[in-house]
């Protein structure tokens, strides 16, 4: 038995019915100090892209590997147009770029660059672009053979397009493999590039998992084979998301397409990239929605969820979870950086994202003002969505039958005005159980992360361990974000009160 279990209510997997209740998305708060990082040195050109970020609890540091370089003027760095640099931060807001001397760039080592390309691709389509290599994921190895494999990275090197692996003891000095472990038809044919990839260690499956962008013509040929260099280009490319996994980082299996735009999407929508995390027992993914209409050409983020890491549901009627900013604003186009592990500190979640102040077009990027910076948005723990009351009353949430495996129940929830939540325990046939009726339930009011649920005479769920029950939430003027089952008591963790229906949550200060 797991010591605790949390349900985020991102999908209907556990929900039987919700009369008078609607699932509502809660976008994270874009920080008032954005952008939190911008190009400022000669080697950074006009872009800093936060491609890989994690928090090191031992050193109490945020660590970021970001793509940078003189994209339009590779001659300024001996032909290198794009590479990876390294930065650290105590609070996620103020970043240090240490002069590491890890690699030589343009004859100098007084910079924070940690990875450069092995060379220039001989293909004509790549020659003018210069040398490009960048890290897209950095993962702490759960079982390294030695200290040299403490960190595993997934990287792209345009000298031979595809997904490479790298290893490091400190995240600064990298040993990279000479051959990619996954090449697609796009990699082999040079139609473009499929550099949008995410590597994570899936502790639920105990396997390494790779998510990457592919093309639908690859549905039967997700892995390039010798001779595919002449594969005919599609009449219209359409970006989709694919999957593969591995037990040892050497043998990759289960290649498949897992997400593709459908007929319920606008005709111009494509999936530009995908950044998943594992929260508790479910997958939470940030899906990059590319709007290809020439009048738009922007990217925003939708929230997705999955129970197996393969079949994803887009939450809340496909509303934007992280919307892009207005024209010319620093984040008019956004993409979420790779964070293989959720960054949660003091009950606050951190999402770092690439922010562009231009449309996704060559013409707009070429304007003098174009710049790519790093943005930060934050959210309160487990508050991706809520089940919120509406009209008409009464408002109820009833779960499907579940087996009680933990004695304690806590609600991440908020009420406003005279609102309240009471939890009733039902048998499978919907009849209230003695000692667990609504009249015997404690009244939950206010805004807190861990409202305890109990009943007079029965206390907690201890008497029902191992039994199959339903939970019925009787709600007025309330939001239910998550419920957690545990074996131990939890602190209440009160939050700022809600004052009226539809009120938002106040921005939390960064507190590391």
Describe the protein:
The chain has 512 residues and is mainly β. The chain folds into 2 domains: 4-26 and 386-486, Jelly Rolls, CATH 2.60.120.260; 29-382, Tachylectin-2, Chain A. It has helices at residues 124-127, 185-189, 362-365, and strands at 4-7, 15-17, 21-25, 29-30, 48-56, 61-68, 80-89, 95-96, 113-115, 131-140, 151-157, 163-168, 174-176, 197-202, 207-214, 240-246, 252-259, 269-279, 282-291, 298-306, 312-314, 320-322, 333-336, 343-345, 348-356, 372-380, 385-389, 395-399, 402-403, 408-426, 447-452, 468-486. The two termini are 31 Å apart. Helix content is 3%, strand content 43%. It is built from 3 helices and 32 strands. It is elongated, with a radius of gyration of 24 Å.
Brief write-up:
The protein is mostly beta strands and about 500 residues long. The chain is about 5% helix and about 45% strand.
Overall, the morphology is elongated
State the helical fraction. under 10%
Instruction: Give the low-pLDDT segments.
Output: 501-512
Mean pLDDT over the full residue set:
94
Top-tier CATH class of the largest domain: Mainly Beta
The CATH topology of the largest domain is what? Answer: Tachylectin-2, Chain A
Distance from N terminus to C terminus (CA atoms, Å) equals 31 Å
Number of helices: 3
Strand content: 35-45%
The secondary-structure class comes to mainly beta
Within CATH, the superfamily of the largest domain carries the name Glycosyl hydrolase domain, family 43
How many strands appear in the DSSP assignment? Answer: 32
């Amino acid at each position: 038995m797991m010591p605790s279990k949390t349900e985020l209510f991102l999908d209907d997997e556990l929900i039987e019915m919700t009369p008078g209740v609607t699932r509502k998305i809660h976008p994270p708060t874009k920080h008032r100090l954005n952008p939190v990082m911008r190009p400022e040195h000669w080697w950074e050109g006009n872009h800093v892209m936060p491609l890989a970020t994690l928090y090191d609890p031992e050193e109490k540091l945020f660590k970021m590997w970001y793509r940078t370089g003189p994209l339009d003027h590779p001659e300024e760095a001996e032909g290198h147009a794009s590479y990876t640099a390294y930065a650290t931060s105590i609070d996620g807001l103020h970043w240090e770029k240490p002069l590491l001397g890890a690699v030589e760039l343009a004859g100098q080592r007084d910079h924070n660059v940690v990875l450069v390309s092995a060379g220039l691709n001989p293909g004509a389509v790549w020659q003018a672009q210069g040398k490009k290599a960048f890290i897209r994921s950095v993962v702490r190895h759960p079982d390294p053979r030695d200290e040299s494999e403490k960190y595993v990275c997934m990287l792209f090197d345009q000298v031979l397009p595809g997904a490479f692996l790298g290893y490091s003891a400190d995240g600064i000095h990298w040993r990279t493999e000479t051959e990619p472990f996954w090449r697609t038809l796009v990699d082999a044919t040079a139609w473009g590039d499929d550099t949008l990839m995410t590597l994570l260690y899936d502790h639920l499956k105990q396997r390494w998992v790779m998510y990457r962008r592919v093309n639908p013509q690859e549905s039967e040929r997700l892995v390039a084979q010798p001779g595919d260099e002449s594969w005919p280009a599609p009449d219209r490319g359409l970006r989709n998301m694919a999957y593969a996994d591995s037990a040892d980082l050497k043998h990759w299996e289960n290649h498949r397409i897992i997400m593709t735009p459908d007929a319920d999407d606008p005709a111009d929508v494509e999936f530009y990239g995908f950044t998943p995390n594992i929260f508790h027992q479910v997958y939470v993914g940030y899906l990059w929605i590319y709007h290809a209409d020439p009048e738009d050409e922007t990217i925003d983020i939708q929230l997705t969820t999955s129970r197996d890491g393969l079949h994803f549901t887009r939450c809340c009627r496909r509303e934007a979870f992280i919307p892009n900013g207005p024209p010319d604003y620093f984040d008019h186009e956004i993409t979420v950086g790779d964070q293989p592990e959720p960054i949660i500190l003091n009950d606050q979640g951190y999402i770092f994202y690439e922010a562009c102040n231009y449309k996704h077009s060559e013409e707009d990027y070429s304007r003098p003002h174009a710049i790519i910076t790093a943005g930060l948005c934050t959210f309160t723990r487990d508050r991706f969505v809520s089940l919120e009351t509406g009209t008409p009353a009464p408002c109820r949430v009833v779960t499907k039958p579940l087996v009680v495996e933990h004695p304690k129940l806590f609600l991440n929830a908020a009420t406003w005005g005279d609102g309240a939540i009471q939890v009733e325990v039902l048998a499978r046939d919907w009849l209230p159980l003695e000692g667990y009726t609504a009249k015997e339930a404690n009244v939950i009011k206010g805004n807190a992360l861990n409202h305890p649920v109990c009943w007079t005479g029965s206390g907690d769920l201890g008497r029902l361990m191992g039994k199959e029950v339903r939970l019925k939430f009787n709600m007025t003027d309330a939001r239910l974000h998550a419920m957690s089952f545990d074996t131990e008591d939890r602190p209440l963790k009160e939050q700022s009160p809600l004052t009226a229906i539809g009120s938002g949550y106040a921005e939390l200060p960064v507190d590391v």
